[in-house]
Amino acid sequence: MSYYCSKCKEEITKEEYEYSKKKFNLALCRTHQKNNNSQLNRLSKHESNSKENMIKGRIAETLIEELFLSLDYNVFRYGMENTVPGIMELLKGVRSDVATNIRRMPDYVIQHRKTKEVFFIEVKFRTSEKFKKSDLPKDYPFENCYFIIVSKKHIKCITYKELMEGKEITLKSKNYLGSRKEFDLDKKVIIDFCKFALKFFKEV
Description:
alpha+beta, 7 helices, about 200 residues, Trna Endonuclease, Chain: A, domain 1, two-stranded antiparallel sheet
């Protein structure tokens, strides 16, 4: 029995056929096996970067959650992926206004225990320490949301309204989280958490 490469139609050995079917689920000659290997490596690198970014985001979220808890706030995970486990997997490939709004739900709802004021919080990690209007999804529905940007050195904050006014977070901007009067935060505690951020993200 003869075996052939499914790409170039060149004849291959039985051993090459069996190895290729097992590894790639295709009959491939040695040349096309190498090509497939390089594609798999590129995919793995992309997947690796995606997972790395997800982990950075989770660390930033946890950092902010612990910061507000230590500053006498009630903190509730609000994103639908937290309240309904598995829903983000179910929504993959689904395109509708409802699905889109679920994906955009802020990460947290926080409430000051004394004043009882409530805020929507969205946490982002940015190596560049930059965040502007164009970084928002089109038709972002949560117009009363606060965006907290965590970087290696700073924790800054900007509102949806400020973004719409053309304001943005940059390396030189002074919109530090500790300067937001709405939250009435202890700047010393925030400095401690900035040190945590530097420790966690120093290799980024």
